[in-house]
Amino acid sequence: MKRTIALLVVVFSFAVLAARAADSTKINGWISDSMCGAKHAGSGAACVKKCIDGGMQPVFVDESKKEVWKIDNPDAVKGFYGDHVTIAATADAANKSVHVDSIAAAK
Predict the structure, then answer these.
(1) Quick check: 35 and 51 in contact, CB under 8 A?
(2) Which residue range(s) make up the domain with 48?
(3) Which residues in the chain land under pLDDT 70?
(4) Max Cα separation, the chain?
(5) What φ, ψ does residue 87 adopt, rounded to 5°?
(6) How many separate domains does the chain show?
(7) Residue 5 pLDDT
């Protein structure tokens, strides 16, 4: 009986880890600012940096859909303002926001 319970605990733990990994999605796009959104996607790095320095929030612009998503952990994208990037993120469609798990320059 103890072995069965231990096995169930192990299987459940792996299932939870697999489900969390499935929630994170890789997406290409741009880091922009909340004022300009998709307007500067790919062409306005200087403006994005200026707007964020002026108090606007960084946002993610999905490359394929040109949708603008709030970033709920903005410190994760510092150093990528205005850049074309690939993010691994967990999306919250109800709030139109993403939690950036990792970020890298897009290839």
Answers:
(1) yes
(2) 25-105
(3) 2, 4-23, 40-42
(4) 64
(5) -115, 150
(6) 1
(7) 63
Q: Is residue 76 part of a domain?
A: yes
Residue 65: how many CB atoms within 10 A of its CB? 11
Evaluate whether residue 57 is within a structural domain.
yes
Compute the distance between CA of residue 55 and CA of residue 5 in angstroms, rounded to an integer: 53
DSSP 19-69: HHHHHEEEEEEEEEETTTGGGGTTT-HHHHHHHHHTTPPEEEEETTT--EE
CATH code at 44? Answer: 2.40.50
Please report whether residue 7 resides in a domain.
no
pLDDT of residue 44: 75
Q: Is the pTM of this model over 0.70?
A: yes
The four Cα atoms 19, 72, 86, 22 give a dihedral, to 10 degrees, of 0
Nearest to 90 by CA among 107, 73, 77: 73
